[in-house]
């Protein structure tokens, strides 16, 4: 057993012992600023309610009925504009919530969509604080047709939509509104094991065309946070999840044809087309202990990513671009490992073979541990000490106290042969009043590195041959004020030059930064204008030598209207020091978004200003970065001509052109440095709630003047003719057939065909190695993938 696994298991054991001693404590008292809401009682029933009972007014057993829904937006405490009634009951296995929502004929927005694709629909929701700890809650939401969305809400973090569990909904649209019935199994929830339960609950309705959000009980924007405003509900007696074991076996078949370019170039393995057939089977197992702790153990785990990444501009970026995680194992319960500084970014783990995780809550303690391997670092070695795998471990623990406050610790470790990275951190969230919150974090890292291993988190002097150890520190301090009219946030962070977190995402070190944002919004009553007001932002940072690196100041004005309509205009001035050159910049931005009809929504943003070319051409004289005129356009729309069909279109355009005073002959102001085009068309047809067919067409092209910009370095390729060469034009088709019965039980059939301008040439002379160039139109097939993936949830 390696040191990382041993230490992580010991840490897990310690957390379990500590948590077990706490779990017997009485529930936390309400925060001092919690609303004084009378205790309601939900009755037990012996016949489960059905949707037809509410459609046809059949007699029902006892139920808790509530109807005093109040606006959170646009009014604050104003009665809801459309009548809503909810009916709550429970039996031995499930909690039942039925919503009867009245509305004008033909005005309900509802589409038959994939699970969690409910962002453009009306709907109703339930929030459950099952531990009554005022820190987190389950979130269950359904559109009028019963299409589900679920999440975990955590104070200070917001909604984590990676959470998926098993529950039932049924819905029906009527001439005068709609009715939805929720059936939430106790087996899908975590709560204390007391004989009698008191939970916090909030019921929710959204009416999109009015930009109206209604709650029972009344939840105000005048205070920070949600859970302390929930209504206490009792009556739960002798309820328990019971035995809770989940097994998800899966199988994957995939055939992949692709252009392989070794990086770094290796004469022994020249560029060539490869064919790879993969067949894999495995098992994901989940065990729930003490109704509160969840253990996930995997055998040959499923770490595949079914959905492709959303398009982002990656051209002319000084720092790494963040792409969110989409692999199922990692996104589940990711919030348990979150800290103000992103110390665990699971996409740093590229090719794992095994993984185990424990997450949960005992008393006032929240706990999380993870152990996982990664084969990717050793793939470039056929022998020697680095022909192995990396092993990583993460431990997270937090203790809640006081007014929705906590103090927590985080530790991670990654070992690869003779290299290692250790991270230790303390963080806290302190709520001083109903509006003010402070977050703080301190981190220390220890890194041993050998550049021969290919993991270059830090730079070492040549005299050390790239081998050595260094330590680094980071600090984060944030204060925020949240109110109905005024919002304010400021933070200070500090990353030392030797800071390194191999399992995290920190794209800039040797920096001290201050950030501030504030806005004031007027909210007219009984108006189509929801709110309007000015905003202001400032950023100032310098390095540890005390040299100013950047500053930015911007002011804006925002108007929000009904029908999800927003207008924003802003003006910014900025300074940046790069490669020893002072750059003075500015930008003007205009944006708008609206959803005027059930079948149409669109958004647009246009930015014009001045920005750097971070990657000048190697032949440019003088060879240095320079300022240019920039234009950016983001445009998107969603078209839904029927309840089952959805078309999402995204267009991104980014241009950099030469500017007077920053160009020398033979170049003149106004010439193009590069034009970057990204276009995505995403079509989805929903046959049923479970069965859907999706097509994505992606186009990405960078048209560059190679006398002004180093396009290969810009796109992540190499100036070395031996490669690897990055494509400058790409066109991808991506087809996916999905049958998702519920989380854990699914069938995916996918086909992906990638075209680009990369062309593989045979060697110029006998015995010479093949080489790759990027030229012409994207009509060369460089990748082709077909896969079938099946999983099935067994629940005991």
The stretches of 5 or more residues where confidence is low (pLDDT under 50) are: 1-34
Estimated radius of gyration? 28 Å
Number of helices: 4
What proportion strand? over 45%
Distance between the first and last residues' Cα: 31 Å
Main sheet summary? 24 strands, antiparallel, barrel
Mean pLDDT: 88
Assign a percent range to the helix content: under 10%
Shape: globular
Structural class: mainly beta
Number of strands: 41
Structural features, described:
Among the domains are: about 30-235, Sandwich (Immunoglobulin-like), CATH 2.60.40.1190; about 255-295 and about 615-795, no CATH class. The chain has a 24-stranded antiparallel β-barrel. Strands 1, 3, 6, 7, 8, 9, 12, 13 and 14 form a nine-stranded mixed sheet that branches. Strand 29 (about 565-580) and strand 30 (about 580-595) form a beta hairpin. Mean pLDDT is about 90; it is low at about 1-35. It is mainly β and about 800 residues long. The chain has four helices and 41 strands.
């Amino acid at each position: 057993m390696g040191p990382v696994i041993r230490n992580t298991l010991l840490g897990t054991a310690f957390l379990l012992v500590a948590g077990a001693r706490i779990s017997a404590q009485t529930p936390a008292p309400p925060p001092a600023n919690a609303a004084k809401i009378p205790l309601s009682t939900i009755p037990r029933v012996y016949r489960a309610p059905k949707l037809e009972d509410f459609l046809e007014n059949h007699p029902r057993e006892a139920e808790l009925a509530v109807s005093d829904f109040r606006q959170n937006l646009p009014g604050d405490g104003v009665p809801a504009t459309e009548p809503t009634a909810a009916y709550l009951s429970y039996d031995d296995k499930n909690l039942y919530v039925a919503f009867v929502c009245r509305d004008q004929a033909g005005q309900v927005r509802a589409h038959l969509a994939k699970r969690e694709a409910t962002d453009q629909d009306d709907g109703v929701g339930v929030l459950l604080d099952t531990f009554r700890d005022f820190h987190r809650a389950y979130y269950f939401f359904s559109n009028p047709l019963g299409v589900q969305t679920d999440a975990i809400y955590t104070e200070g973090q917001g909604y984590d939509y990676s959470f998926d569990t098993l529950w039932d909904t049924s819905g029906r649209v009527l001439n005068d509104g709609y009715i939805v019935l929720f059936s939430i199994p106790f087996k899908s929830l975590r709560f204390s094991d007391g004989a009698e339960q008191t939970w916090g609950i909030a019921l929710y309705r959204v009416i999109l065309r009015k930009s109206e959000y209604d709650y029972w009980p009344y939840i105000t924007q005048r205070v920070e946070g949600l859970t302390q405003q929930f209504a206490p509900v009792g009556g739960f007696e002798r309820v328990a999840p019971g035995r809770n074991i989940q097994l998800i076996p899966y199988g994957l078949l995939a055939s992949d044809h692709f252009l392989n370019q070794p990086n770094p170039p290796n004469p022994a393995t020249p560029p060539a087309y490869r064919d790879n057939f993969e067949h894999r089977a495995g098992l994901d197992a989940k065990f729930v202990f003490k109704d509160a702790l969840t253990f996930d153990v995997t055998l040959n785990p499923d770490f595949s990513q079914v959905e492709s990444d959303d398009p982002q501009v990656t051209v002319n970026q000084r720092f790494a671009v963040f792409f969110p995680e989409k692999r199922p194992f990692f996104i589940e319960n990711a919030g348990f490992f979150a800290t103000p500084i992103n110390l665990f970014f699971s996409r740093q783990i590229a090719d794992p073979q095994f993984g185990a995780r424990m997450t949960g809550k005992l008393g006032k303690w929240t706990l999380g541990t993870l152990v996982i391997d990664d084969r990717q670092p050793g793939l470039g070695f056929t022998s020697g000490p680095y022909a192995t795998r990396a092993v990583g471990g993460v431990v997270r623990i937090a203790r809640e106290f006081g007014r929705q406050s906590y103090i927590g610790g985080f530790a991670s470790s990654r070992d690869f042969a003779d290299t290692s990275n250790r991270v230790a951190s303390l963080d806290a969230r302190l709520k001083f009043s109903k509006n003010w919150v402070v977050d703080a974090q301190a981190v220390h890292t220890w890194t041993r590195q050998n550049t021969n291993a290919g993991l270059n988190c830090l730079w070492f002097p040549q005299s050390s041959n790239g081998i050595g150890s260094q330590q680094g520190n980071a600090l984060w301090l944030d204060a925020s004020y949240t109110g109905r009219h005024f919002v304010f946030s400021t933070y200070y962070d500090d990353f030392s030059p030797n800071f390194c977190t191999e399992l995290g995402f920190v794209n800039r070190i040797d920096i001290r930064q201050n950030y501030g944002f504030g806005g004031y919004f007027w909210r007219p009553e009984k108006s189509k204008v929801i709110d309007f007001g000015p905003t202001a932002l400032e950023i100032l940072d310098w390095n540890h030598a005390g040299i100013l690196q950047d500053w930015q100041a911007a002011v804006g004005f925002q108007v929000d209207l009904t029908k999800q309509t927003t207008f924003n205009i802003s003006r910014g001035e900025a300074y940046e020091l790069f490669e020893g050159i002072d750059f003075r910049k500015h930008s003007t931005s205009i944006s708008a978004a609206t959803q005027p009809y059930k079948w149409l929504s669109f958004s647009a943003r246009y930015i014009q200003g001045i920005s750097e070319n971070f990657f000048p051409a190697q032949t440019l004289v003088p060879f240095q970065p320079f300022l240019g005129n920039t234009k950016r356009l983001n445009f998107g729309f969603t078209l839904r001509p029927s309840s089952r069909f959805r078309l999402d279109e995204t267009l991104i355009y980014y241009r950099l052109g030469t500017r007077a005073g920053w160009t020398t002959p033979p170049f003149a102001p106004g010439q193009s440095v590069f034009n970057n085009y990204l276009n995505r068309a995403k079509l989805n047809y929903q046959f049923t709630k479970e069965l859907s067919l999706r097509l994505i067409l992606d186009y990405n092209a960078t048209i560059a003047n190679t006398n002004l910009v180093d396009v290969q370095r810009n796109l992540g390729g190499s100036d070395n003719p031996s490669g690897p060469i990055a494509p400058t034009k790409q066109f991808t088709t991506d087809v996916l057939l999905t049958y998702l019965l519920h989380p854990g039980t699914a069938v995916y059939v996918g086909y992906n065909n990638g075209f680009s301008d990369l062309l593989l040439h045979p060697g110029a002379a006998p015995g010479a190695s093949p080489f790759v160039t990027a030229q012409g139109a994207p009509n060369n097939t460089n990748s082709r993938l077909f896969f079938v993936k099946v999983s099935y949830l067994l629940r005991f």
